[in-house]
TrEMBL record:
NCBIfam families: PRK00481.1-1. The lineage of its organism: Bacteria, Bacillati, Actinomycetota, Coriobacteriia, Eggerthellales. Transmembrane segments: none annotated. The keyword Acyltransferase applies. This is protein acetyllysine N-acetyltransferase. Zn(2+) binds at C135, C138, C161, C164. Residues 2-249 form the Deacetylase sirtuin-type domain. PROSITE patterns: SIRTUIN. The keyword Metal-binding applies. It holds the Pfam family SIR2. GO terms for molecular function: NAD-dependent protein lysine deacetylase activity.
Length: 249
């Protein structure tokens, strides 16, 4: 971290300490979890840079899930599940800031559940969670452990509900699927009320999630991302460094 970045990080931390109770909101993407060993998507070492039989965006789309469920679950279980991952410095600090009353809401594009594992209570999961799964036919809910057990029992590797035989789908938003309206609305409301908004670990290239920044009307917008984003000009501070380093205080 160079001297300028170090000064900007200190400025950010001052803003956090000066924020009124509940005045901070956090919006995070895949870069928040890379320190926990979960690869991001668009970096040179990310998921999308690897070679697969089909483009990853296609393999985690709703049409691919419907047409090729066996291939979908091969990819999903091998590359989208990281059940042994532990919260990192950023997750833990955000949970602390919530417990002390500074942070009102975590809004996340991640599906790993690490914010809750760190202790955060108010988490809005824009893209769902790998920890939740449901039968598409009868609606029965299943844990991720259930999903893996049902997959292991199936000859074609497609988990099916033991009650009705319907395919069990992860409660994650696939490409071609809309975001949950209630989660989106709650995110807009939290952002509109905030004085300090921190956007971290996201390229801000996926919509409608990236458009949430348009609802921020507060005093300080901080973007923490190792590479530039299309919204950098809107920010009061842009910190091109690791998310964990910024929240290590």
């Amino acid at each position: 971290m160079d001297e300028r970045t170090r000064r900007d990080v200190e400025t950010f931390r001052e803003w956090v300490n000066e924020t009124r109770p509940g005045g901070m909101v956090f919006f995070g993407g895949a870069g928040v979890s890379t320190e926990s060993g979960i690869p991001d998507f668009r970096s040179p070492d990310g998921l999308y840079a690897q070679k697969y039989p089909h483009p990853p965006e296609q393999m985690i789309s709703r049409s691919f899930f419907d047409a090729h469920p066996s291939e979908f679950f091969d990819f999903y279980c091998d590359h989208m599940l990281a059940l042994d991952a532990e919260p990192n410095r950023a997750h833990r600090k955000l949970a602390e800031l919530e417990s002390t009353g500074t942070l009102s809401t975590v809004i996340t594009q991640n599906i790993d559940g690490l914010h809750q594992k760190a202790g955060s209570q108010r988490v809005l999961e824009l893209h769902g969670s790998v920890l939740r799964n449901f039968c598409q036919e009868c609606g029965a809910t299943h844990s991720v452990e259930d999903l893996l057990a049902l997959r292991a029992q199936a000859a074609d590797g497609v988990p099916r509900c033991p009650t009705c035989g319907g395919i069990v789908k992860p409660d994650v938003v696939l490409y071609e699927e809309p975001l949950d309206e209630r989660t989106l609305r709650a995110s807009v409301e939290a952002i509109a009320r905030a004085d300090l908004m921190v956007v971290a670990g996201t390229s801000l290239s996926v919509y409608p999630a990236a458009g949430l920044l348009d609802y921020f009307q507060g005093d300080h917008l901080v973007i923490v991302n190792r590479t530039p984003t299309p919204r950098d000009r809107q920010a009061n501070l842009c910190l091109a460094t690791n998310v964990g380093d910024v929240f290590d205080f």
